[in-house]
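Re-running Sodium-independent sulfate anion transporter-like isoform X2 to confirm reproducibility after the cluster update. Everything else is unchanged from the original entry.
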Amino acid sequence: MPSKQKDWKRSTKRFLNRRVRITEWLPEYNRDKFVCDLIAGVTVGLTVMPQALAYATLAGLEPQYGLYSAFVGCFIYAIFGSCKDITIGPTALMALMTYQQTIGRNADFAILLCFLSGCVQLLMGVLHLGVLVDFISIPVTVGFTSATSVIIGTSQLKGLMGLKFDSSGFADNVRKVFSHAGETRIWDLVLGLSCIIILLSFRKIKDIKIGGSKPTRKQKIIMKTLWLISTSRNALMVLACSFLAYLLHEQGTESVFVLTGKLQSGLPPLQLPPFQTSFSNQTFDFTGMCTELGSSIVLVPVIAVLGNVAIAKAFASGDSIDATQELLTLGLCNVAGSFVSSMPVTGSFSRSAVNHASGVRTPMGGVYTGALILLALSLLTPYFYYIPKASLAAVIICAVIFMIEYEVVKPMWRSSRKDLVAMAATFVLCLAIGVEYGILVGVAINIVFLLYPSARPSVHVEQNTTASGISYLMVTLGNSLYFPAVDFIRASVGRAGIKQGASQLPVVVDCRFILGADYTAAKGIASLIDDFHKRKQRILFYKPRAAVLSVLHGVGLEDFIHVSTQEQLDSTLKDSSSSAGIKYNDVELHDVAAIRHKEKEAGENSVPLLPEPNLHPA
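Result of re-run:
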């Protein structure tokens, strides 16, 4: 009994360490880790605040929704997350996909999408369906992220130029930017372009090295200061622009810049996600809202998981990543976030990189980031009024331009051009018809490329000679025997035999690379053997696997001759060769299988035409 109790405690502890990850590292938490996590958490918090405001605007929501989305995931991931560097919150990609669902609708659709995304992710985690993410290949991912970067960048031209219009889709946005170009507000454009130049410059100052390989203490402090300025550049820029707008703002007159405006102050209400809503004199129940959201209910969570697992792998430092745990954790983040009016969230690569560079030691860094966001919501919301929209647009543009992965085109062209087709198709269709349809088409193209070898396997034909000097045709098949390839293989092997004309060389089908077969393939092989019998040409099968043999024997293939070694092949071909010329009712038989067939027709009491060779060795 005590041993069973110990085993139960041990298994419980192992389960908790695997699923509630905080139980693994919290007992070893100390002051040094606290200091490192606090510095990293505050640094990431200063980065996420301006990004959250900008991404909420990108998603077609009021800016405070970005902050609502930025804190719950930090707390949840600290408890269940498996990677210390990942920070959960709003991202440009999730904002864009949310925007597709909020065009002409209210925020309730974004909040419900967050809840449903979490439910789908939890279901995928429980059913261990993380493998589905593997069907989205790197070329499709590159095409998708590059296209979304272009879409996001162009969508911010409106804020950068101080324009006011509504658009739907990439092409419509570009057209309206040009048609409204005459309404550009010069001061907004100047401010936005200046912000972009300064942000890109600040991005590089962290790489400045002072003092060579052995810097002094003073030089180290200078480099650390430059790094801190570089990593918190977004917050510093938004703060500086807000201060400038505040100084230039005069009561009762129009501001020089287009400002963010008044935000709802205070913490978000804790409530159930909206399962019904009303807008434009219409009321939608839960079913109606789900119908409006459409395929995004599945696509948004899958894309979120794809990004989160990719970030976890990037910062894993060689450790294995539990994709199921990441699915469950991200699902909990989205479900819990929907109770505080969050839009869909996932891991942010840029903020995770800042977290890693800041020296974070445990996931507790996310707790300090979340606490800073709550502090900002409680105290700083009134001051967000003066943030110029042009500065937020500059922050987003500087974040997404580095997501356009044009550098992969050249190596992809050199290594695998079919992957370039999938990438290009995904990129173009994401821009032309929408990101959700673009990635679906990209995945479909990938699956076609994946299945094509099963339908049209490689067939290699060469003439060989056995040790005893008997010539034969070796036909090597390069894939499994499944129903899409049956007719092709039958035609290819038959064509190889016919091409020899009057020589009538025996055909040996090399089965070493055939890993499996199905019923349709077995019937196809039976037809192939019959075709060869009608031509009085021998056909044998070399080294078929046990799994293939069991399928072929299962359909009652009596004339299926197979050998396992070169010696058996030589012996069988020699026996077949010696049987050439045997007459049966004035018909000359050249095939062992054909002779056996005639013996069977003659009946059990007939005299065998040739001795029985051992063709089926154990």
